[in-house]
Amino acid sequence: MRERYEEQLRKLNVSLINMGKMIEIAIESSMLALLGRDKDAAAQVARNDQNINEMERDIESQCMRLLLQQQPMATDLRLITSALKMITDMERIGDHAADVADLVSKVPDCKYGKMNEITEMSTQIINMLHDAVQSYIEKDFDKAKNVIAQDDLIDSLYHTIKKDLVKKIRETNEGETILDYLLIAKYIERIGDHAVHIAEWVIFALTGERE
Are 82 and 16 within 8 A, CB to CB? Predict the structure, then answer.
């Protein structure tokens, strides 16, 4: 019985890793679509979002089977319930990546001067997501805490972009386009928030305490 339980836990971990990779690819693809003005890539992000949704449902089913069939206690129970919470944030990340890709058809070009900051935000967030999922797999408290600490950099980049956008709205007649860029930056910043939530659930799984 215990061997079967351990195998189910290993399968859950593999599924979480795969879902993590899927959302990392979604973020990368949405940024490539934006920077390259690639509408085909943007459409692919939208199609892949359905796969992410299906993965969420599959992991949810795995967690429910573990809870109902194995009736885990203490740390194991927290690990499984935390996985259920994590996949909700991961699914929302997929949604936000699709939101960014959707805006590709609306933003005429990439002449906005803060694209480097937007790219830096997305790169940093992909690393955060990877570490957040790995902290769960490895049961690494310090790695989860480090993910949370990195959120300050994301917030700083976002506020730099926001401040510059507000200035450009006042100085130009391209308010609608600039607001689309602001939405893109906001979606990416929200992805960072979800990465932090994932790390917080890891800490809960390991300690029983919420950040």
Answer: no
Nearest one of 163, 200, 210, 9 to 88, comparing CA atoms = 200
Question: Is the separation of the CB atoms in 181 and 165 below 8 Å?
Answer: yes
Rounded mean pLDDT of the chain?
Answer: 90
Q: In this structure, what DSSP letter does residue 208 have?
A: S
Closest CA relative to residue 137, chosen from 4, 56, 51, 19: 19
| pTM score above 0.85 | yes
- The Cα-based distances of 174 to 107, 110, 171 in angstroms read 11, 13, 9
Q: What is the mean pLDDT of residues 62-81?
A: 90
